Structures are given as structure tokens and as C-alpha cells.
Amino acid sequence: MQRAVAHTGAVADTGTVGVERDYGIASLDLRVDSPLVGELVTAVDETVDQLDAEVDALGGSDGVLARTIGQGVVGVLGTLTGDLGLGTLGGTVELTGPDLGGAVSPLLSEPVEDPDGTLALDLSAGSIRVDLAHLLGDDVHGLNDLPPNHEVVLDAATLGALADRLGQVVDAWAARVTTALTTALGSIHLRIALAADLSAPLVLGIRVPIATLSVGVDTGIAALVAGRTELSVGVALLGLDLGPLLAVVTGLATTLVRPLTHAVVGVLSTGLLGLVGTLGTTVTTTIGGPVVAATGAVLARLPAVLSLRVNVQEDQRAPGVPEGLAVTGRFTETALRLTVADALVPGGLAHVGLATATVGPNSVPLVPQRT
């Protein structure tokens, strides 16, 4: 609770006794601490580290993409006539783009709330906050302006719905994280410029270079994965008489484009976007499921152990009134009273009153006093 106040005033005169009361509850929050909440952030941090390592491994003339392209070329050559061979690929494979950690950093430090702010996850503190004043009161006044001695009902249906709402909050947050990472990965710029000699056994079975094969692309990962761009393949002949091999060799400029593009997209989808998809499952199911279940178990026990009353009014009538005096009773106002185990023991095992004000007894003479 951030703040609770209570005010009580009483006046007495020759014919009227009046009591004015008021109370105010600024907020009433329930906080559930769970180490599982912190594991949500850990899962994201670990995935970002894996993605950074994967991006590094993809680049370079001997990196994953270069080897994938080399294997793709050899695979196609093996289906053609002429026993064509591929020399060592050389050149560059570069991936440049945004800081992946920076793309999700704001999502790891800001509170995660449902649309109306009733439930929030504090990822850094590892806690779940429930705004009971908003949940159990109304949208405008919360727990204020309620009738005297009003019992705030913590029923199983209301608290059970909170667990469902928590699951929705975790799912929505996971979607935001995976979207941020997918967007950041898609904006990575990929530049491939590789080349190698093609060879064939032309004379007496002796293998000689006959052409230079080049493979390249200069695009964003998102455009390549979406099929808006593709790799380019070039064949530069070395001027030898290739005879019937000429058509086969020159045809590589188109024959290799589709399989090499598909091979590169497959590596990017599995190595990068696949990790993001796995993170989404980890957050919503592997970690999020136990978070929701544990929180639901805590909330389910609340009705049996905790009772809440607001605007608690307790009055004591005035004792015997001496002649010639008007006497008020004793009037007490408590903004909020929490009682533990009220359902198990009459009156509960213990109770705490927050923000209590008392006035009276007051007395005034009925006979005018001489001055």
C-alpha cells in the first residue's frame, strides 16, 4: 500500500449529533516474488549471445555461408556431365547490422503490464504485482467511496482469472521480444563476393582450369529470406575450347542461382531465425508456464488466509451522561483492515488496521456558562 488516510469528525449541540467520516486508499498492491520471472530475462540474454556467435560464424571466406555455397556448387556439378571440379573458394562474406542486445534492451528493463495496468511483471526485481485496488474496486475510485464495513471479496474466480491474464502478459511480451530480434536480424546486411576456378579433364585426363565461377549478393537478410532478392552467379571463360562442355559451363550462371539461394536462406533461417523461434517457445512454455502455474497456486490460497475490509466504522455509545451535558460517543474510522485466517478462526489469528482515526467522546454544557 502506498498511502491510506482516514478522517473522522464529531460535533454535539443542544439537539443534534453529527459525524463526518472519510477515508482514502491510494493503492493496494499484491506482490509475488518468483525467481522464475528473472529467468525470462536470462533466456533472452542467452539467446542474444547465441545469435551474436552465430552471426560471427556465418561470415568469412571459410565461414558457414562460404562452406554452404561451396558444397552447393559441388552438389550441382556432380549432377552434370563433364566431371567438372571446383577449386578453393576465395573472397569475402560479411554480415553487418545493429546491436542485437540493444534491440531488446528496453524490453528487459521496463515493467511488463497488461493493457489496464492491473497486473505487471518487474523483470529486474523478479516479481509480479497485482493492483488489487483496481481489480477489486472500480475503474474510477478503486477501493474508495465504498459503504461502511465493506468486505472486499477475494473469490477464486477473480484470482484464477489473474493467472490467465499473467499468461497473456507473458505471451505478449514474448511476441514483442521475438519481433524485435527478428526485425534486427532482418536488417543485417549480407555481402557475399566469392570466386573459384572451375576445372575439367580436357587432355589425357589432366584436369585444367576452364573458367572462373563467381557468387555474390549484396542485400538485407529480410529481403533474401522473403525471396525479394537472390544470389547472382557469374561464369568467366578462360578461352579454352570446351566443345560440348561449353553449354554446360555457361549454363551454370542460371543453374546454380536457385539452389545456392535456397541453401543460404536455409542456413539463415535455421541458424538465426530458428533460435528466435526457440526463444519464443522457451519464454511462453518452458519458463512462462511454470511462472503462471506458481503464481496461480499462490493466488488460489489467498481467500483462505486473507480477509480485507475497507471503510471500517466502529462506534461506542456515550456512557451515562451527567446532567447538564451533551456527550458524543467514540467514533473510529479505519481505511483498510487486513485479517489473517478469518475463515479458520473467528476474528482471525491477527489483523492489521491501516490508517485509523478516532474522535470522541466529546461533551458540551447545555447550560450557558457565565463569562
Task: Explain the overall architecture.
This protein has helices at residues 35-58, 64-77, 100-109, 132-136, 156-186, 221-225, 245-255, 257-305, and strands at residues 4-12, 17-25, 29-33, 85-86, 90-96, 112-113, 119-122, 127-131, 150-152, 189-203, 206-220, 232-237, 306-316, 325-327, 330-340, 350-359, 363-365. The two termini are 50 Å apart. The chain is rod-shaped, with a radius of gyration of 38 Å. The protein is built from eight helices and 17 strands. Mean pLDDT is 83; it is low at 1-16. The strands form five sheets. Strands 4, 5, 10, 11 and 12 form a five-stranded antiparallel beta sheet that branches. Strands 3-8-7-6 form a four-stranded antiparallel beta sheet. It has a four-stranded antiparallel beta sheet with strand order 9-13-15-16.
The gist of it:
This protein has helices at 35-58, 64-77, 100-109, 132-136, 156-186, 221-225, 245-255, 257-305; strands at residues 4-12, 17-25, 29-33, 85-86, 90-96, 112-113, 119-122, 127-131, 150-152, 189-203, 206-220, 232-237, 306-316, 325-327, 330-340, 350-359, 363-365. The protein is an alpha+beta fold and 371 residues long. The chain has a domain at 32-130 and 163-296.
Provide keyphrases for this structure:
single chain, 371 residues, alpha+beta, five-stranded antiparallel beta sheet, four-stranded antiparallel beta sheet, rod-shaped, disordered N terminus
Number of strands: 17
Q: N-to-C SSE series?
A: EEEHHEEHEEEHEHEEHEHHEEEEE
* Secondary structure category: alpha+beta
Into which percent range does the helicity of residues fall? Answer: 40-55%
Low-confidence stretches: 1-16
Summed over residues and divided by their number, the pLDDT gives a mean of: 83
What fraction of the residues are assigned to beta strands by DSSP? 25-35%
- In whole angstroms, how far apart are the ends? 50 Å
Sheet with the most strands, sense and barrel status:
5 strands, antiparallel
Gross morphology is rod-shaped
